[in-house]
Design goal:
4-stranded antiparallel sheet, about 35% helix, 7 helices, alpha+beta, elongated, about 260 residues, 6-stranded antiparallel sheet
Length: about 260
């Protein structure tokens, strides 16, 4: 495993080597001798490239990030498509007065950077590791080649794009029209759905829960305590159990 300090990965093929440029805010650890054949997560990129007969052109680069490290930064140029192989990451934007808003949480098999396929050359958000993460990075030009030449892959990316826009629109409605309790209820339900359970370990800190709800940390902590006292949830350190999902959902709906 090698270590290198870089800001973004620019894929430049020269004699089967890949060079990396620019300076970084974090130390990334690259996994050697990794390829699509021995990857347990066979994604659409691999299957599409194999179908089109150029899977050897993918040249994936697997990178390990520690908790809180930045995977990609807002306004940087997109040079790669990134797939989350392991761990969780947060998608967030920088607001006024250094305030941040978390748009959504990424889980295994989620993609990063695909907006560039639709003409957006730069990241419009930041991605930060919520825990130890492993990503697979593929040259964005390879993704564009598949997008423009494979109808099924085009449809899959379009569907992912529509779902992403739909989620953001729903987020905007929640942030603009709901009160503090409704916002926190939304966030708890969202995390529960990600974990596919009413009892789950909170993958974000109290501060990050506040950023996910676009409220202050103090308000987030206060509402969690109110929900606990009202018998809606049970708190045990980082573990949350939803005791009354119907009431929590009602709070979410009425805002």
């Amino acid at each position: 495993m090698s270590k290198i300090s870089k800001k973004s990965i620019n894929f430049v093929k020269n004699n089967s080597k890949i060079f990396f440029t620019e300076t970084l805010y974090t130390t990334m650890r690259f996994i050697k001798n990794n390829n699509c054949q021995n990857c347990l997560l066979k994604c659409d990129i691999y299957f599409t490239a194999k179908e089109m007969g150029f899977e050897d052109e993918i040249n994936p680069v697997c990178v390990q990030y520690k908790k809180h490290e930045i995977i990609c930064k807002q306004n940087e140029t997109v040079t790669q498509a990134i797939i989350i192989l392991e761990g969780n990451a947060k998608v967030f934007i920088d607001g006024i007065n250094d305030k941040k808003i978390i748009l959504n949480i990424l889980v295994e098999s989620n993609y990063i950077g695909l907006l560039s396929v639709f003409g957006a050359p730069n990241y419009s958000y930041n991605i930060g590791a919520l825990n130890n993460c492993t990503t697979c990075n593929v040259d964005i030009e390879v993704i564009k080649k598949m997008y423009y030449n494979n109808h099924n892959f085009l449809l899959k990316l379009n569907r992912a794009f529509v779902e992403s826009v739909s989620n953001i629109l729903g987020k905007l409605i929640s942030l603009n029209q709901k009160q503090v309790r409704g916002k926190v209820a939304d966030s708890i339900i969202y995390l529960s759905e990600l974990c596919q359970s009413n009892k789950f370990d909170l993958m974000v800190s109290r501060k990050e829960l506040a950023e996910l709800s676009a409220i202050s940390e103090e308000n987030a902590v206060r509402v969690l305590t109110e929900f606990k006292n009202d018998g809606i949830i049970q708190l045990n350190n980082k573990e949350i159990e939803i005791l009354n999902f119907q009431l929590l959902k009602r709070i979410s709906i009425i805002g």
